[in-house]
Amino acid sequence: ADIVVEGELILEIKAAKGGEPGKPIRLAGVDRGAGLPQFIGDFDKRKGWSKFFDAKEGVSHLEITGIRLKRYRIGIHLRGKSSHVRISQLTVEEANEGIRSDGGAELGNPDAATHDVVVSDCRFEKFTKRGIRLQNGNYRWRIERCHADAGGKEWGVESFPMGFQLSARLAVHGGADDVVAMDHDLELIDCVAVNCYYEGTRPENKGSPKAYWNGDGFCAESGSRNLRFVRCVSMHHTDAGWDIKADSPEFIDCIAIDNKENFRFWAGTARMTNCVSAFAFKRGGSGAAAALWTKCAVEARLCTFIDGGLAIADPSASIVLRDSLFVGPAPVKNAERITFENSVVAAGDGPDDPRIAARKGFEWIRPTVDFDSALHGESKGFSSVRWGR
């Protein structure tokens, strides 16, 4: 069944039943010449309760496409145990959360959680909490070509703003020891997160040098697993570009620029290939800027790190850079656990200068030669030629 809408309306949809295999319920916006239909709610930064699409637990076989939303607290909310959902060409502006999915995993039946979901070509602009938020056991999600712009300081009114929250908390049944499932097997491709900003976790700490300024581009909590990021970009956050507590995440062709800590890893072995971490910048609060911070093992191959330290925060952690470039101040925190294999450490000038054109303030828009090494070509560090190969 298709529901076709056009024009500008105020609407809330509560879905109690979905489609069937091969016969999905489809909500499609149609452009009749004045743009895709727009729906407007009542949300205003700190207040308002409207949801555009609220799917009851178990609602499955859905397709939602071609919709513009503005001032909804939540654009689309899946309440758990959904499957075979497709969301595309969705724009959500001035919201608390764009898409929220509760997995609904059960003790003894973690596979009941929300799964087999594809989100593509969506934009989340000016949100106070999340662009996309997953929690309690979601699995087999593919998120591609999605853009999350939190809106910067103007919209930094709540703690922990994040572009993509890939696991928000443990799924439990009864007591805290009864862990059901964590979100897993999630793939993000060609996604961008920018401008997550907040000046302290508590109002009384705002402005204090001891306050922790959070706000991450991509985040995942402990226990989540099998996360893969391909050609994703994260910039201009008051905390981390990536704050990943998931076990052994993988990064291919990913770019982190102008975050307090560009990459932050916690568990297993994080693997990076053809990635850039550049110009880490601390806007305020506690902690120090870093190109890479880790409490676990990191293996980086053909990566480039510019103008930011490498910080090892646990005695069991280590960093191995293979065929990579480190440009700028030498790594100083626990440097004995950093291994350079066929890699170059350069001050940024002199005979060892890898000749990389990008400078602080560079704004990543598309793959260019700006981060390529004119000296080493494709043999060391990031290469735009290799991007997407």
Feature tags:
single chain; 389 residues; 33-stranded parallel sheet; two-stranded antiparallel sheet; 35 strands; 46% strand
Oligomer: single chain
Low-confidence stretches: none
Estimate percent helicity.
under 10%
The coarse silhouette is globular
Beta-strand percent range: over 45%
Number of strands: 35
- Terminal residue distance: 40 Å
Secondary structure class reads: mainly beta
Q: What is the average per-residue confidence, as pLDDT, rounded to a whole number?
A: 91
SS field, number of helical segments: 0
The whole-angstrom Rg is: 21 Å
The description of the largest β-sheet is: 33 strands, parallel
Report on this model:
The protein is an all-beta fold and 389 residues long. 0% of the residues lie in helices and 46% in strands. The chain contains no helices and 35 strands. The chain has strands at 2-5, 8-9, 13-15, 25-29, 38-40, 51-55, 62-70, 74-78, 83-102, 115-120, 123-135, 139-144, 147-149, 162-165, 172-173, 175-179, 184-189, 192-194, 216-220, 225-230, 233-235, 240-247, 250-252, 255-257, 261-267, 269-273, 276-278, 290-294, 297-301, 304-306, 310-312, 318-322, 325-327, 338-341, 344-346. The strands form 2 sheets. The protein has a 33-stranded parallel sheet that branches. Strands 15-16 form a two-stranded antiparallel sheet. It is globular.
